[in-house]
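Recap from last week: sequence in, structure out.
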Amino acid sequence: MTLLQIMPDDAPDSVLLRTRDDDLIAQALREQSVDFVRWPLHPEVTPRTTSEDLLAAYRHEIDELCARQGLRLVDVARLHPEQGAEWQERAAKARSTFLEEHRHAEDEVRFFAHGTGCFYLHLDARVYAVVCEAGDLLSVPAKTRHWFDMGPTPDFAAIRFFEKEDGWVGDFTGEPIAAGFPRLDSLLGAG
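Predicted structure tokens:
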């Protein structure tokens, strides 16, 4: 299930809210202008579903969201555990890149079709750790400081939505804040 944990940005060990209740998660995020909704899962989608088939399975939802929000580009970001040092190096590099606080010029809109990942949103002197799982759609407003943890063994497929081709480019803040907060595996292990 999805998880939201809110912490002061200067006290990562202090938990202000921890919940798996979808309604409470949506409400807390909505208060910060972040959209969180659940899409129904399509049973034909598995971890091995190709990107093309994944987009086809969610075509109706994708087209509706794009029309409503003016999004024009859609792709799939995915990592699935494989054997070998090459995959481990690629996964470690991808994880470390997004563990740095950054922002984007446009909204960051992601739908998790498979697996898990955690968005950390740095808002109003707080950090909102949003552990997204299959079925979660998160829309983070442009210029929101955040980082993302895909875990030590990344295993996810997420549909990404953009207004422009360069919408994914990160503007890294250079702040070391992310290093002090619990990683995805710690959040999930905390019960």
